[in-house]
Amino acid sequence: MEVAIFVIFALLALASAVVVVAHRNPVYSTISLVVTLVSLAVFFILLGAPFIAALQILIYTGAILVLFLFVIMLLNVSEEATHPESGRRIQRWLAILGAVTFALLLGLGVWNGYRGTDFAPMSEELVSLKSLASALFSEYLLPFEIVGLLLLVAIIAATVLARKPPREEGSTP
Amino acid sequence: MSPELFHFTATAVKLAVFAFLLVNVVPLMVWVERRASAFMQDRPGPNRLGPLGLLQAIADALKFLLKEDVTPSGADKGMYLLAPVLALIPALTTFVVVPFGPTVRFGENEVELVVTSAETGVLLFLALASLGVYSLVMAGYASNNKYSLLGSIRASAQLISYELALTLSVLAVLIPASSFQLNDIVFYQLDHMPLGMNILPQFLGFTVFLVAAFAETNRLPFDLPEAESELVAGYHTEYSAMRFATFFMAEYMAMTVLSALLVTLYFGGWSLPWWHGNPDSPWLTAVGGLTILFAKVGFVLFFFVWVRWTYPRFRYDQLMKLGWKVLLPLSLANLILIAVLTLAGVLPAP
Questions:
Q1: How far apart are alpha carbons B148 and A88 in whole angstroms?
Q2: Helix axes A26-46, B77-93, angle to 10 degrees
Q3: How far is residue B223 from each of residues A4, A26, B133, B202, B215, measured CA to CA in Å?
Q4: Which residue has the higher pLDDT, A26 or A84?
Q5: Residue B111: beta bridge partners?
Q6: Nearest residue on chain B to A59, judged by CA atoms?
Q7: Candidates 3.90.550.10, 1.20.120.1200, 3.40.50.720, 1.10.540.10; correct CATH number of A1-79?
Q8: C-alpha B245 chain-centroid distance
Q9: Chain B: nearest CA to A110, how far in angstroms?
Q10: d(Cα B144, Cα B239) in Å, to the nearest integer?
Q11: Where do the structural domains in chain A lie, given as residue ranges?
Q12: Which of A161, B33, B45, B62 is least surrounded, with the fewest CB atoms within 10 Å of its CB?
């Protein structure tokens, strides 16, 4: 049962990830990214971390990708204007080379990690909500707050950049 | 029967019961909406077919099934067909975390009267509910119609804005109960709150939740995504027959599950102040809990209808102002207030 679910969602995640890169219509790419991220959430559930799964859906698909889609639709970005022939051919080969190298490195890392070591399954202690929360708000409080501050700075920066000269007021967002 | 098989059967039965109830809430709500609006406007409403006109809903459903299903020629076919189906997913899945009773014993097997008692509870509800915006966005985009597109842009902006206030007001309920599971929240209310309800200390949060719930379900006075005087019918302008009816159903189901969440968070969910389930009879506990839950949900749903036929629609800038400048600060203030009250021991720990 677990293996079947894993295989189905692994294939779905891979296929939709390919569509994200390959499709010419940005709306389709975004929707495919949603499918990829939801499949990843299923993996988190299979690994016994439902909290991370819920956060994955809530934050990535529920908020960030909706904004992606919103901006794409608002700007009305239509099908990719460039033809496959335009652009430098070498770019494509470089991209493929980069992807293959990355996949090799990743595979090497995983293989090295697996060789000889026996991984203990994640303990309840590690993924349970209470221990995660207490670790986040005691041991890692400073990094946590700094990340929050970073996001705040980003929001303020975006607001300043997007602000119009202060002559008209009350335009709808 | 082996425990695994029993657990599987129990889960299937719980899912089937919820699906049945949710699907049947829709025609009933359509009937209530039409009759109640007629009553408020001093006219009879649909009263010909069956007792009190109750069979009108079935006639309407039949009409939807038999009508021609039109796909506009400029539409993005795949997405156009997929969008109404996706609308049903959040409406039908979020119910899995809403409890309708305590844990009961059937023979030697224990059954929790909630489909899943995952540790993440409410978070799962919010996560699945947040997927609802995609069907609206896809419907609007795929229809290739400017009214549809405008409707879905409005919908996504509105849903994102009000989700924040909604989530923060839910968070304030979780703090004193210190759990994400809805059944823990019900028991917290039963143990510590007057009348077994959170409503008194959480009144501010309840108000924010209620207003945000109207916006999240695109109901008047916040139905700008489908404002008929400006956008024909918004994101579902091009849809017809059963595909239109699917959007319609999803909207009423979303109202129902959100009402169930509201009732569970603030009004004691499946319990009554003097009835916490019957330890002698598991069946009575299950059926009683379900009845009480849905009776409370019925009151909230009627409130939705009542408001719809009472208030005019907001302007879009008013909607955004209310969401960001009133509801969000209010929900933050409520969060801090509840946190301080809990720390000070005014709200007891579970």
A1: 39
A2: 30
A3: 42, 28, 14, 27, 7
A4: A26
A5: B104
A6: B127
A7: 1.20.120.1200
A8: 18
A9: 30
A10: 12
A11: 1-79, 123-165
A12: A161
Flag whether B196 is in a domain: yes
3-state secondary structure (DSSP) of residue B180 = coil
* Tally of CB atoms within 10 A around B329: 12
Which pTM was predicted?
0.83
Residue at B219 is within a domain: yes
User: Which two tokens mark A136?
Assistant: 């986040």
What residues make up the domain containing B333? 3-343
The CB density around residue A66, as the number of other CB atoms within 10 Å, is 23
Residues of B in contact with A50 (CB under 8 A): 118-120, 124
| Residues of chain A contacting residue B75, judged by C-beta atoms under 8 Å apart | none
- In chain B, residues with a C-beta closer than 8 Å to the C-beta of A172 are 316-317, 320
Residues 6+ apart with CB under 8 A from A79: A24, A25
Residue B325: CB atoms within 10 A of its CB come to 10
ipTM for the complex shown: 0.75
For residue B114, give the 3-state DSSP assignment: coil
In a domain, residue B26? The reply is yes
Determine whether the interchain pair B159/A172 forms a contact, defined as Cβ–Cβ distance below 8 Å.
no
Q: Which residue of chain B is at minimal alpha-carbon distance from A61? A: B131
B77, B85, B117, B131: best mutation site toward chain A, by most A Cβ within 10 Å? Answer: B131
Summarize the confidence of residues B251-256 as an average pLDDT. Answer: 89
- Residues in A touching B119 (Cβ below 8 Å): 50-51, 128-129
B155-187 exposure pattern, b = at least 16 Cβ within 10 A, e = fewer: bbbbbbbbbbbbbbbbbbbbebbebbbbbbbbb
How many residues in total does chain A contain?
173
Helices and strands (H and E) in chain A: how many: 8, 0
Alpha helices in A2-117 (DSSP H): 2-22, 26-46, 50-55, 65-75, 89-114
**In this predicted model, what pLDDT tens digit does every residue of B145-165 receive, in sequence order?**
888 888 888 888 888 888 889
Is residue A85 very low, low, confident or very high in pLDDT (cuts 50, 70, 90)? Answer: low
Q: Is B106 helix (H, G, I), strand (E, B) or coil?
A: strand
Helix (H) or strand (E) holding B110: strand B109-112
CA–CA separation, B265 vs B254, rounded Å? 16
Number of domains in chain B: 1
